[in-house]
Amino acid sequence: MNKRQTRIFALASTGVAVVIFLGLTLDSHRQFPKLTHSENITDSVIRGQNVWHKNNCINCHTILGEGAYYAPDLTKITQHRGTPYLTAFLKDPSQFYDETKHRRLMPKQDIDDQDIADLIAFMDWVSKVDNQGWPPRPILVSGGSIPGTDLSVAQQSGNPAATSKLPPGAAPVSSANDPVALGEALFRTATPACAACHSTAPGVNLAGPTLAGIATRAQETIASPEYKGKAKTAAEFIHESIVEPSAYLHPGAMYSANGASFMPTTYAKDLKPEQIDHLVAYLASFK
């Protein structure tokens, strides 16, 4: 190839690359309204974006892949935490975590109720943007996983080596068709995922209390004078807690406010009755 041919090839290649780049850019802009659901950008969402920037939230948090990594990714936060929880958290983060134990966490922003509502509206809009699966999983706010507790159903197959790594009190799963196995899978894949708020390790409290020993604690709660629900057995109590979270309020300001639990109330509608039964079977195995 001589110099003239080389020059023509370089110019042609550059031209083709530019055309492809422009075509992809135009196609992206064509899809933006659909991917971002721009029709849902209300005045509240716009005000919430202003609150996000005014308080420099991006200095610690990440959304849609942009921001810092000091604090949890918030791209899907409204799908992992409900509005009541987020509202109470933004009003006073310190009531949710002991800073003497967990060190410096979320600072109190001192923003008013309207700003909080707008910020949550903005984050809810962000959570519904089609971002091709980002982030791949929720980032735990506190505690984290304990080695040996995040086992798959395949690992919990009755193998002695795998059984020794089960969370304390959990029974080994014998079959992928077993209700306990199906419940374990659902625990991690439901929307919002139970595992995003609850740990199965003793003493590891996240946005919700640990579920280690939940079956034993359920029996104790039912027998206590504070319990006003309808459950008579541990399984019934767990079922009630899933479909009617406010029937019994777990002690602690970080779990409820104004007589209502922060746990989502959508599981009874979004899950099939047999799926709820699978979840109950799984959780009831934690003695």
Task: Summarize it.
Keywords: Electron transport, Heme, Iron, Membrane, Metal-binding, Transmembrane, Transmembrane helix, Transport. This protein has helices spanning about 5-35, 45-55, 75-80, 85-90, 100, 115-125, 160-165, 180-190, 215-225, 235-245, 265-270, 275-285, and strands at about 60-65, 65, 255, 260. By secondary structure, the protein is an all-alpha fold.
What would your notes on this structure say?
- By secondary structure, the protein is mostly helical.
- The chain has three domains: 1-36; 37-134, Cytochrome c-like domain (Cytochrome Bc1 Complex, Chain D, domain 2, Orthogonal Bundle); 160-283, Cytochrome c-like domain (Cytochrome Bc1 Complex, Chain D, domain 2, Orthogonal Bundle).
- The chain is built from twelve helices and four strands; from the N terminus they run ααββααααααααββαα.
- The protein has a two-stranded antiparallel ribbon. Strands 3-4 form a two-stranded antiparallel ribbon.
- Helix 9 crosses helix 10.
- The chain is elongated.
- It starts with a helix and ends with a helix.
